User: Fold this.
Amino acid sequence: MRNFIALLKSYGLLQRLIIGISFLILVFVLGIVGYMVIEEYSLLNAVYMTIITMASVGFSEVHPLTNNGKIFTSILILASIIAYVYSITLVTSFIIEGEFRAYFKHLRVNKEIQQLKDHVVVCGYGRNGKQACQQLTSGNVKFVVVESNPHIIESFKEEANFLFVEGNATEDEVLLGAGITNAKGLIATLPDDASNVFVVLTARELNPRMKIISRASTDGAENKLRRAGADNVIMPDKIGGTHMAALITKPDVLEFIDFITGKINIRLEEINYAHLKDKYKNNPISQMEVTANTGANIIGFKNANGDYVVNPQDTTMMTEDTKLFVLGTQAQVTHLLSIIKV
Assistant:
């Protein structure tokens, strides 16, 4: 019930419903009081007269009305008409203005979020959050955005398949509404470092297994975020400065990397040991025949100790907790995954 009321409030419907219903109740109560005072009706007769007057059913009055009673009845009829017109206008605008559609879309979105598994929760849809969502979309990774800015939320409502939760990402209830317990990762991109620390702390407590990546603005915040439970901390300003300097010192190398990571048709994929078919586990990577079968290339390897190897040898063994990094076109990588993954 609390979720239903919150949903009505989010669309401004609850306030208008309260006004419309209160208007009708007020007219009804005034009608009863008026008949009891002016015509000296009993409570039952006053209720009866008010109902048949407001409903305009045409039944005869309890006894002939006095002149004051006729004037009061005329006023009551006009007030009833105004109340009905207002209520009908409320319902009509609710449907015509798109709120009816938006309301049921919100219900559908909430239901879809609760059914998600292995998705990513993105906290904050600023510049960094938007870029993260674009990258997740290009990688076909499902995600849910948590945002409190009402203007941004309004833009989300126009998107056909955009999953979002309105609220403060530092609150447990909001993160639970985003399906945090079933998520595989969280990206905290709030502009305030303290808020990101709270988000990371809360998320780590709610889902100890997930991977958490957070934005940081200062060097001091980086250590705090890691202590709070962030697996990786990104400082956009520092990365931006390094990127700009590298464009001067190594322009072609950096542009090539941007081409690989930014071009939609080029895909850099990581392949986890746990996702391989049994015949490729505990065997050398040469057995996969990646290049021969698909045209893609193995460019990196991560061993069980977390060390990286560039251009691993064919004799490198795929053992537990290891990963391969493969580069190729979208079609090549997709074909490779269909061959080697379970």
Notes: The longest strand covers residues 266-272. Residues 67-96 form the longest helix (30 residues). The two ends are 43 Å apart (CA to CA). The chain is about 55% helix and 15% strand.
